[in-house]
Structures are given as structure tokens and as C-alpha cells.
């Protein structure tokens, strides 16, 4: 299967409405063609439009900022002499002065299929700003790398909207960025002039490796497809005292802490009979972030059957098993990703429900029962915005 990204299609069939216009582009490292040409270079080389401004999300235009809440500030592009604006610094939304330089905004960001990944919410901020300024948006769609995984995890409650979640979708959502943009327009910005350049030859029941497209790390701690597969659940560990493997070469696949009792944890997690994965004991010493320089007893998740794997269920089972067998576990207090009041775990999970269930020692079955009801209610919403077939016909 050879998928054509929205960028490849835009460049091969450049829209008449963009010709002769001053363009802004929201992009980052993975914003490349099948032949590894970055969108900035591709647009700057065209004679039928003018690239006038560049905007970058969390982690910077080149993926240079390593960790969460490491802001970066804009500059002038060294070769093109045009401004590069940060949307993860003094502001997370393009302001009127930034937008005054452009006639249309092109967005080309790679998502990973998990609600807490901030790029979708940078898109939301851009759609909001452009709707208010009367500027049309062209969103170039890219694959959901883990589209083959089933929906998993709780829905996001509106009172827990934040920069790690700005729409009522599941933790593992199966949507592409183009579909999320359509959902956001329908829900919040009906007057927005939005154009989605859809992909050719992409099917939802696929993983990134099925597309034939080059993988470029969308963020420093998302090195491989294996990382993306476990991320929708393991991102919850960011809001706990368990290391999620930052500071190692396999973040989110590896987890642990100096006080983790490996034997007791093994017995507890094996009893859960989690589908599609195995746990292998693995010690590590993080080079930064939680437990930096300390030996952590832990495990690595090996996903053996992605179609059966439940990333959020697995993470909930991990946290539940650690809480049942170890001293030292805590949910971290705020702040987290610009939220200073609500618990970080709650804004990641989507509400207080999962945290309170874990604290009460509730069964996995009782936790997931609530999710199933929420996901059933989400199904008609999904059907209205789903652009791509499940599989090749």
C-alpha cells in the first residue's frame, strides 16, 4: 500500500485558491513529502505563491525541545528571512499581528492517535484564530499511525478541556488530523473556511508501516511506531511517580521506579490476562526526568498483536497493579501543561473518574464498563466525520 499524504497531493494539484497568495504554514519535522522534502522548502521554491510566515508547535520547528513544558521562542528563518513563530511559548495561538502577514494558513502536523498529544489542540487554536480573522485554512491530512487499534479509554468531559484535550473524543481515538479538524469546525467554528486535503490510499485498519511513508519522529520521545502504539495509555504515567521511560531510548514502552517490587507486580499483572502484549522485566537508569540517575526496577511492554492490544486498559492495569503491590506510588499535583488547578492525571484521562476508581481499588471490568457506554455514544459522531474506509475493498 502506498499512501499519498495531503502534502504530496497539495504539491501535485496545487489549489487555484492559493496561487498568488501570501501563505503561512504550521509545520514541524515530519512535514515532509514521500521524497523527504520539507514543506517549507517545497513552498518556498514555488513561484505561484509566497511563503510569508512559519509557525511551529510544541517541541519546536525541528523537534529541538526535549521535554514537556520546555517552551521555545520564535526567530527569523536564516535562509528565507521570514518570521518563525512559536505556538508553544509566550502564546499558543496565532495573534492578529502574526496573521496580518498571510492570506491563508496551511497546517501540516503529524498526530499519533492519542488525545493528549498536543498538536491537535494547536490545530484547534489555529482554527479559532483564523475563524475570528476571516482567514481560510488548508489542512493537509496524514495517517493516524495506530488507526488499527480499537477505541480505548474514557471520553473527555468538557469541564476538563485543556491543552492536552480540546474535544470530546476517546483517549485512543482512531481519527486523523483532518477528521479532528472537521469535528472542531462543526462543534466550535462553523463559520471557518476550512479545506482538508485528504490522503489517497489510506485505510483506518492499518499501522504506519503499511503506508510506505517515511517515519520522522513527531516529537523527541516518540521515536518509533512501537512507541505510538503504547502511548495512548502510557502517557497517563506522566501524571504519576512512575517513570514512563523518559530519559531512556524506549520511552513509554519502558516503565518503573526504584521502589517497584518486580515479583509482586509480575504476579498481579499476569492475573489480568491483558490481550495483545507481554511484559518483560527490564531495569533502567533514566538520564533525565523522573528518577534521573537512579536504578529503576521495571518492565518493557512488548505488543505482540496490535489489533487486540488495548493501550488504555493496559496502562490502567499497570497503575492498579503497582498501587496494589508497592509503596511509593502517588498521583502528581498540578501544574501540568498550563493547567494549574485540576489534577494532571484527570486532564489526561478526561475526568476524575479513572483516578477515583483506581484509588478505590475498583476492578478493571468496572472501569471499562463506563468507557464502553461512552464509546457507544461516540460512534454516531465518528460516523459523521470519518472520511476513510476501514480497509481496502
Give the count of helical stretches. 11
| Broad shape | globular
Structural class call reads: alpha/beta
Report strand order across the widest sheet: 3-4-2-1-5-6-9
C-alpha Rg, in Å? 21 Å
CATH fold descriptor of the largest domain: Rossmann fold
- Catalogue the unreliable spans: none
Question: Ends: how far apart?
Answer: 13 Å
Count of extended strands: 12
What portion of the residues fall into strands of 2 or more residues?
5-15%
Give the oligomeric state: single chain
Describe the sheet with the most strands. 7 strands, mixed
Average pLDDT for all residues: 96
Roughly what percent helix? Answer: 25-40%
CATH superfamily of the largest domain: Uncharacterised protein PF07075, DUF1343
| CATH architecture title of the largest domain | 3-Layer(aba) Sandwich
Sequence of secondary-structure elements: HEHEEEHEHEEEHEHEHEEHHHH
Q: Can you tell me the CATH class of the largest domain? A: Alpha Beta
Query: In the residues, how many domains can be counted?
Result: 2
Sequence-ordered SSE layout with sheet pairings:
Blueprint lengths: L5 H7 L9 E5 L12 H6 L5 E7 L18 E2 L6 E4 L9 H4 L4 E4 L11 H15 L3 E4 L11 E4 L14 E3 L4 H12 L5 E4 L27 H10 L19 E4 L4 H9 L6 E5 L15 E7 L7 H15 L18 H6 L3 H7 L4 H22 L8
Parallel strand pairs: 1-2, 1-5, 2-4, 5-6, 6-9
Antiparallel strand pairs: 3-4, 7-8, 10-12, 11-12
Q: How would you characterize the overall build of this protein?
A:
The chain has 393 residues and is an alpha/beta fold. It starts with 5 loop residues before the first helix and ends in an 8-residue tail after the last helix. The chain is globular. It has helices at residues 6-12, 39-44, 96-99, 119-133, 177-188, 225-234, 262-270, 311-325, 344-349, 353-359, 364-385; strands spanning 22-26, 50-56, 75-76, 83-86, 104-107, 137-140, 152-155, 170-172, 194-197, 254-257, 277-281, 297-303.
